[in-house]
Design brief:
Helix content is 82%, strand content 0%. With 218 residues, the chain is mainly α. The relative contact order is 0.15.
């Protein structure tokens, strides 16, 4: 057993490269999904029925489709429509679109629970729609939704493991590569588990900090 972990240690550069790719992919897709979620949320809450119906259909659709299947559709299905993407772009696009639906629903729920008085006061003081959102709505919205957004980022990290099916060189793909060459499945995959755990602990620390800030504002 110790010998197996020694083999994994000898391949640490491959694992660290996979961890780096997972981290970069998760950060980029989380930021992009959050930004897209911010754009979808007003449409989701729109009083125009046709617009809210379309966005609600997208959100519900993404939340009901397994991510693995959606990643297959993006990587293998889009080329049949004439859109060919490399594995990195496909992985990033799949993670972003899929998790944007969750981000939009998280933000919608947080927005709906916000008190109306500050918004009404901002309107009374003449804030435009953009400045009202940026200065009155956004700060408490982010604080209220911060812990749930953090949990969704952890889900993004876990979803990224599925991208090994399209040969994207993330952490799970690196562990599988070590296992296939050296036949040390337990050591390779348990090491990957602890690396994922460490990455999620960092996210949880950030979530805890945001939660404390939110509690201090209440």
């Amino acid at each position: 057993m110790i010998h197996d972990f020694g083999i994994v240690w000898s391949e640490r550069s491959l694992l660290l490269s996979g961890l780096g790719n997972t981290t970069i992919l998760s950060i980029l897709s989380a930021v992009a999904a959050l930004l897209l979620g911010f754009m979808l949320t007003p449409a989701l809450m729109s009083k125009q029925a046709w617009l809210s119906w379309i966005v609600r259909g997208f959100v519900d659709g993404m939340r009901c489709v397994p991510f693995l299947l959606f990643a297959y559709i993006v990587y293998y299905g889009l080329p049949s429509l004439g859109l060919r993407l490399d594995n990195w772009t496909s992985g990033l696009l799949a993670l972003t679109i899929y998790n944007a639906a969750y981000m939009a629903e998280i933000l919608r729920g947080a927005w709906a629970s916000q008190p109306r008085e500050p918004i009404e006061a901002g309107v009374a003081f003449g804030f435009s729609n953009l400045s009202l959102f940026r200065r009155i709505v956004l700060p408490p919205l982010l604080l209220a939704a911060g812990p749930v957004i953090g949990n969704q980022i952890i889900q993004i990290v876990k979803d990224s493991a599925f991208l090994t099916i399209i040969a994207l060189p993330e952490l799970t793909h690196a562990a599988a590569s070590i296992q296939s060459r050296h036949y040390v499945p337990f050591a390779a995959f348990i090491t990957a588990v602890f690396l994922y755990w460490g990455l999620c602990l960092v996210i949880e620390a950030g979530v805890t900090t945001i939660d404390r800030l939110a509690a201090a504002r209440r």
